[in-house]
Design brief:
- The complex is a heterodimer of chains A (345) and B (838).
- Helix content of chain A is 37%, strand content 19%.
- Chain A has a 5-stranded mixed beta sheet with strand order 4-2-1-6-9.
- The longest helix of chain A is centred in the first third of the chain and has 33 residues.
- Chain A starts with a helix and ends in a 45-residue tail after the last helix.
- Chain B is mostly helical.
- Chain B is 65% helix and 1% strand.
- Chain B is built from 22 helices and 2 strands.
- A two-stranded antiparallel ribbon of chain B has the order 1-2.
- In chain B, α8 crosses α13 and α14 packs antiparallel against α15.
- The chains are: A alpha+beta (345), B mainly alpha (838).
- At the A-B interface, α1, α2, β8 and β10 of A face α4, α8, α9, α10 and α11 of B.
Chain lengths: 345, 838
């Protein structure tokens, strides 16, 4: 059940019941004030307020009051109790990223949305390529291995160390991309859970994709977790829902949902599997700008590892994503190269 | 029959400006509040028209983004703070004393002072547009958008300080109303017997006492961040730390503090409207309120529960599921009493004699609008739905429906009480015309917002699909605004040309204000009001017992029963028959005029304007600050030295505060509020420390000893203050002066030791903005130090007066000062372990 289903279910029930209750109560009220208008020729034997009396309540009407109150209370409480089950569904759903799920960190900063895929099995191909160009295959392999085997050493720190030593410029860990990232747009697979961890780089924002019925506050210093599923492919707008300054109105992004296989291919094209890369680099066989061979996709694909986009173990064409602009070098391209907007094998 | 004679003699005529500058009479102050709040309504409304024009279609460039954000922000602030509550309190000022049988509020000069501070604070906000731009971060002022780096203007700080000044005004007013209602009720009027409007005001001020104290704490911390940490810190340290910055969950800290205030606030603005609704329903249906006792209980329940729901404004902000569930439950819980109240009103119409006069039209309209608004609120209470409604026009439409339904009821109140306040009848035809335009405009403005609910809040451009809804809303805004012009015209014209209003123009009205003239004389009535017989009577002061004299003072009332005697006083005839001669020597004379409230109001405004730019704005602002301090000192001394009598009635209901004197009760209420202010600031420290990591926190003072010595110094000074009171009571002037003197000396010692501590810390490069623990330490102990300084100003003033021979007859001021001083000491007893030992 997607977030859309959750929302639509409850919203419809609330809307129908709310309109009904509102219409009934308002109609009843208007009827009563009309019926008991002073012009009508009735005289009821009831106490009426007198000037100067100590305020007391009415002599009649208490029972009807209690009846109406109890009924409305029951309606309201039941409605909310019913939604509690769905609340649990949404909240527990965000607790764990499933094996075929995608985890994305969303950061609101400077009136833009930044996206970063959270993946500890893969690194951006461009980044590894750059490391190789600066310090060579062996050093890159050593750095990656050190980071993989040492829990407290991050890939960015390891690569930065090595590259800083070799390069004339200063290279800091913050200059290294550990994950595939983008600003202003993001790709997600259709039909699989996407988990977003939202935070802010400056002020309070709120990230929301209205058509997918998901929202998350972006608070500096905090991380909010939620999830959604896009059942249909297409482009979805994301907006900011918390006043954040003069650029608040224009703070949008595009979420592109694409078929699962296509997403996997695209993502595979953007990244290298760390273990694979270490092997290839140690053997001196790493190809900068090369595509993952279909065999490699098959080897590393499937839904085995958490957070890793599985590949469609298809035959034939591997994808060149064309990102980063590096030309395919030594890699062999089999089949027709296609852009990331194309159809996966 | 008009009252000439000595009562009016102390006050200039209502047609002179001087009258309005010096008056302390509750009716005058009420009119001042109503007129001023309507001015802010127009100002806030014009801002809304401006941004509704911007929203005519997406992509319009009528306002620049930053102008748009300012308009949206100040619209919200002005409407919530400077229009809604003051408007309601204009009525409260005028009507509550009349309803409970009091001649004025408990502290008339403080009442006037509340008004002048309110006016000054509102002018500050209006002027802030011209100080580089007003605050532009939404009325909710979320952090870190409220940090100076993100909203850098002096105008932004001025908006915030203006709000702080407003909160001070409210706090003074709250203390006044609480003391009045709890100590000034007529004989025979227990709390259960309070009229519905007075009940609603009583609960409003109880909520205000605690809620606004929390807001004051938040504003103090924010002002520290903007004026000191940013204003001073940036020139000394590279990256000054701020309370609401990213260290230690500063954003969430603001949100918690603000919404803890913010949720009770919405009931604070709505309750008076609810009170008006019950009064008007009763009068214009000709039936007593159905389930009255339950309605009162429901209102009490809401008032208490309002402090337990605030996180429903934060459902998406990384709080855990258990807390969210709890808040969901309490939120739904708080909607239930409102259900009861709505049904009570509806059933009150049954077997009634409903007359559709303008007040009732507005109040009935308010009920219908509130029902709609309330139902849409239930949507927001379902957390899963709230996840999607967050930050959208659903929220905007919902709260405008409920809050402006409150405005609608209060407009009904204007028409209801206009004859009483002015002695003229408004035009019923124009009133009905107003209602038609108003109701159409209201729904044309806010209903489309539900259809366009997916529009994000506070955007100045939106996607194309909702253009029609927004255009309808813009048209509705103008219709709605225009309807107010009808009202202004009606009231102004009626004031001059309207027919004379009788004492009681409304059949089936019940409360005491309708038993006296329209408008009432300055002191409302001769003698006092009494309900001891079960009905309203005016009891003459003094006089022989035995001779009975006519019916209870009720117009067209019940069959004349025995006049009530209660051991020495007479029941008189209708108030209109009271003769001048009765105003005899027995009647204690009250004062009604003082220039000092206006003077203090002006001084405080000057001071706060100066503070806004004192650290960032050249020479002008610090000069203004200095001038403000001098003016404030001078006018406070003038206020203190003035002889002003505000006598209480001898006979009154005072439960549950029978044993506590009026002034002492006022001081207790003030201290209760101060406790919550410190609670907020200390709570901020605890929150920051937990968010940062309790054991990773640093203790700032390098040594425990100065703190320990200071603790002893303060405790000793509490002892000497008690001695001062004892000596004053005994009439021993010399010892009184010495004990006051020693207290003052000990206070200086405390400040001296603290000053030395701070000097050492500064010279080590430890500034308040150096790290988050430094911020907590300096600001919390600094706030306490400010309390010490203020206490010593009072002590110094008292010492000076004691030397002149004061307090030997009446030692109450010394006792009251002692209460405050003990409070200051007790706070330190908490702060010392918190900051020195943990």
């Amino acid at each position: 059940m997607s977030r859309i289903d959750v929302f639509e279910q409850i919203y419809l029930v609330f809307l129908v019941l709310g309109t009904l209750v509102g219409a009934v109560v308002i109609a009843y009220t208007l009827y009563k004030v009309y019926k008991y208008r002073a012009g009508a020729d009735h005289d009821y034997d009831v106490g009426r307020p007198q000037l100067g009396e100590l305020p007391t309540g009415a002599d009649k009407g208490g029972r009807k009051l209690f009846l109406s109150f109890t009924i409305s209370a029951l309606i309201v409480v039941s409605l909310i109790a019913w939604t509690y089950g769905l609340l649990l569904y949404v909240e527990t759903g965000s607790a764990e990223v499933p094996e075929d799920g995608v985890e994305i960190e969303v950061t609101g900063d400077n009136f833009a949305w930044e996206f970063e895929y959270q993946d500890d099995q893969r690194l951006p191909q461009d980044q590894v390529d750059e490391a190789v160009e600066v310090m060579g295959q062996q050093a890159t392999a050593d750095a990656l291995r050190a980071a993989r085997d040492n829990g407290s050493l991050s890939y960015s720190a390891a690569l930065a160390d090595g590259m800083d030593a070799e390069s004339e410029d200063d290279v800091a860990p913050s200059d290294i991309d550990e994950n595939v990232g983008s600003i202003g747009s993001v790709n997600v697979p259709v039909g699989r859970e996407v988990h977003i961890d939202t935070t802010s780089g400056d002020v309070w924002h709120t990230f929301g994709i209205p058509e997918l019925r998901v929202k998350s506050d972006a608070i500096p210093g905090e991380v909010s977790e939620t999830w959604f599923v896009a059942e249909e492919a297409g482009d979805y707008d994301a907006n900011c829902y918390e006043l954040c300054g003069s650029g608040h109105s224009g703070m949008s992004a595009t979420v592109t949902a694409m078929p699962s296989a296509q997403f996997d291919s695209w993502y595979a094209g953007e990244t290298v599997v760390v273990d694979e890369a270490i092997e290839e680099l140690s053997a001196g066989e790493y190809s900068v700008g090369g595509e993952e061979t279909s065999a490699a996709i098959e080897r590393n694909g499937g839904n085995g590892d958490e957070g890793e986009p599985g590949a469609s173990g298809g035959t034939g064409a591997s994808e060149s994503a064309g990102a980063g602009g590096s030309s395919p070098a030594a890699g062999v391209v089999t089949g027709a190269p296609a852009t990331s907007g194309g159809v996966g094998a | 029959m008009t009252e000439a004679g000595h009562d009016e003699g102390h006050l200039p005529s209502p047609w002179s400006i001087r009258r309005w500058l010096v008056t302390t009479n509750h009716k005058d102050v009420g009119i001042l509040y109503i007129v001023t709040s309507l001015f802010f309504l127009v100002l806030g409304g014009v801002l809304a028209l401006l941004f509704r024009l911007q929203l005519w279609n997406s992509g319009a460039s009528f306002l620049t983004p930053i102008d748009y954000n300012q308009a949206v922000t100040i619209h919200g602030l002005l409407m919530v703070f400077w229009f809604l509550s003051p408007f309601a309190f204009g009525f409260a000022n005028y009507v509550v004393p009349l309803q409970i049988g009091a001649k004025d509020l408990a502290f008339p000069r403080l009442n006037a002072l509340s008004y002048w501070l309110y006016l000054g604070s509102g002018l500050m906000v209006a002027v802030s547009f011209f100080q580089g731009g007003a605050f532009a971060g939404g009325w909710t002022m979320y952090a870190p958008l409220n940090m100076p780096i993100n909203t850098p203007t002096i105008g932004g700080t001025a908006t915030i300080l203006g709000l702080m000044l407003f909160v001070i005004s409210v706090t003074i007013g709250t203390i006044n109303f609480l003391t009045t209602i709890h100590r000034g009720r007529a004989e025979g009027m227990g709390l259960w017997n309070l009229p519905m409007f007075t009940w609603s005001i009583l609960l409003t001020v109880w909520m205000m006492l605690f809620a606004f104290a929390a807001l004051l704490a938040a504003l103090i911390l924010l002002s520290y961040d903007r004026v000191i940490a940013h204003g001073v810190g940036t020139s000394i340290s590279a990256d000054p730390v701020m309370y609401f910055g990213p260290d230690a969950s500063g954003s969430l800290l603001w949100t918690h503090l603000f919404w803890f205030f913010g949720h009770p606030e919405v009931y604070i603005v709505f309750f008076p409207a609810l009170g008006v609704m019950f009064e008007v329903f009763q009068t214009f249906t000709g039936r007593r309120i159905v389930g009255r006792k339950w309605v009162i209980l429901a209102m009490v329940l809401v008032a208490v529960q309002s402090f337990l729901v605030w996180m429903h404004h934060m459902f998406l902000s990384a709080i855990n599921l258990e807390i969210k569930t709890l808040m969901m439950a309490t939120t739904i819980g708080i909607s239930l009493p409102f259900d009861l109240m709505v049904f009570s009103m509806i059933y009150t119409t049954v077997k009634g004699k409903v007359r559709f006069a303008t007040p009732f039209l507005f109040v009935l309209g308010a009920l219908l609008l509130f029902i709609l608004g309330g139902i849409t609120g239930v949507f927001l209470g379902a957390v899963v739905l709230d996840y999607e409604f967050r930050g959208t026009y659903w929220v905007v439409a919902h709260f405008h429906y409920v809050m402006v339904s409150g405005v609608t009821a209060l407009v009904g109140g204007i028409y209801y009480w206009f004859p009483k306040m002015t002695g003229k009848l408004y035009s019923e035809y124009l009133g009905k015309l107003h209602f038609a335009a108003y109701f159409i405009g209201f729904n044309l403005l806010y209903l489309p917002m539900f259809f366009a609910w997916e529009t994000p809040r506070r955007v100045f451009e939106y996607g194309g699909t909702h253009t029609l809804s927004h255009q309808l809303a813009t048209v509705g805004a103008f219709v709605f605004a225009f309807s107010f012009l009808i009202m202004f015209y009606n009231l102004a014209k009626s004031l001059v040309y309207g027919a004379e209003a009788p004492d009681n123009p409304w059949e089936f009205s019940q409360t005491a204000e309708w038993a006296i003239e329209s408008p009432p004389p300055l002191e409302n009535w001769k003698g006092r009001v009494s309900y001891a017989s079960g009905a309203l009577e005016f009891v003459r002061p003094g006089g022989p017992s035995g001779a009975s004299d006519g019916a209870p003072a009720v117009d067209g009332g019940t069959a004349g029963g025995e006049p009530a005697t209660d051991g020495g006083t007479l029941a008189t005839a209708e108030p209109t028959a009271l003769a001048h001669a009765d105003a005899g020597e027995e009647e204690v004379h009250a004062d009604h005029a003082s220039i000092w409230p206006a003077a203090i109001g002006l001084s405080a405004t000057v001071l706060f304007i100066g503070l806004a730019g004192a650290t960032t704005g050249g020479v002008f602002y610090p000069a203004l600050t200095g001038l403000g301090v001098l003016l404030l000192a001078g006018s406070s001394i003038g206020f203190g030295l003035e002889q002003f009598d505000a006598p209480e009635a001898d006979v009154a209901e005072r439960w549950p505060f029978e044993g506590v004197g009026k002034n002492k009760l006022g001081v207790w209420f003030f201290l209760a509020s101060d406790v919550v202010v410190f609670g907020g600031v200390i709570g901020a420290y605890l929150f920051s420390r937990v968010a940062y990591g309790w054991s990773d926190w640093h203790t700032v003072p390098p040594s425990v000893w100065p703190g320990f010595i200071n603790t002893m110094v303060l405790l000793t000074s509490s002892f000497t203050v008690v001695l001062a009171m004892v000596y004053a009571d005994r009439g021993d002037k010399r010892k009184l002066v010495s004990s006051l003197g020693v207290t003052l000396l000990l206070g200086f010692t405390f400040l001296g030791i603290k000053g030395y501590e701070w000097y050492l810390e500064f010279s080590d490069g430890i500034y308040p903005w150096s790290a988050i623990w430094d911020t907590s330490y300096f600001v919390t102990t600094g706030l306490h130090g400010l309390h010490v300084i203020l206490g010593m100003c009072v002590a110094g003033f008292m010492l000076f007066r004691a030397i002149g021979g004061a307090y030997l007859e009446d030692d109450e001021p010394v006792e009251l000062f002692g209460l405050y001083w003990h409070f200051v000491d007790i706070v330190w007893v908490f702060l010392f372990p918190m900051f020195y030992l943990m």
